[in-house]
Amino acid sequence: MNAPFAKVYVIDGKGHLLGRLASVVAKLILNGQKVVVVRCEEMNVSGSFFRNKIKLQNYLRKRCLSNPSRGPFHFRAPSRIFYRALRGMIPHKTPRGEAAIGRLKVFEGVPPPYDKMKRMVIPRALRAINLKPGRKFTTLGRMSTEVGWKYQDVVATLEKKRKVRSQAFYERKKAIANIRAKAIAVKETELAPIKEQLVQLGH
C-alpha cells in the first residue's frame, strides 16, 4: 500500500477481511507508521460460520500438555484475534518487529479519542470488493462470542450511544455549514468591488 505518511492512521475494521487487512497493517507498521484499528468485532472472515467455528475450536485445543499455562495463549476478544493474525506476519521477536508491534493499537468499538477522528478504509481488504458475491462469510464478533468473549453486549451498548452523539455532531456541523453558505451569499454583492480590485492587483 503506497500511502502518504501521517501522524496516525485510524482504520475502521467493519467490513474488512481479517487476513487481508492484517497484511496491509503489518506492512504499514513495519514502515514506521502508527496505526489504530477500531471496530474489530465487525471484521469478516471468508467461509461459513460453522466451518470457521470448527477451525477456531481446533486451534483452542492446542496447548502445552505438561503445563498449559506456558501457552500457546488463546485470545478470545476480536481485537486480540486480529492482533495475533497480524503478529504472525511480523518478525515480532526481533527489535524491529517489537518496535512495529508497539505502533499498533486494536479496539472493539470506537473508544475516545478515536470517535472524533477521521476513520479510513482499505479498499484492497474490503469484503465487498474482494469476496465474490454469494460466498459465505462470518463476523469475528460472532465467532468470539461462541468461544468465550463476554463483552459483545457492552460494546453494542457503547456503540449505540456513540452513534447518537455522532449523529448530533453531524447535524450541528451541517447547520453551521448552511449558515456559513448563506452568510457568504448575502455578502457576495458587497465583496464584488473588492474582488475586482484584488484581481487587478494580481491576487
| Through-space gap between termini | 39 Å
> How many individual helices?
7
Helix content: 40-55%
The spatial strand order of the largest sheet comes to 1-2-4
What class do helices, strands and sheet pairing give? mainly alpha
User: How many beta-strand runs?
Assistant: 5
Q: Characterize the largest beta sheet: strand count, sense, and whether it forms a barrel.
A: 3 strands, parallel
Low-confidence segments:
none
Computed CA radius of gyration, to the nearest angstrom: 23 Å
**Order of helices and strands, N to C?**
EHEEHHHEHEHH
In a few lines, what is going on in this structure?
This protein has 203 residues and is mainly alpha-helical. The protein contains 7 helices and 5 strands; from the N terminus they run E-H-E-E-H-H-H-E-H-E-H-H. The model has no long low-confidence stretch (mean pLDDT 93).
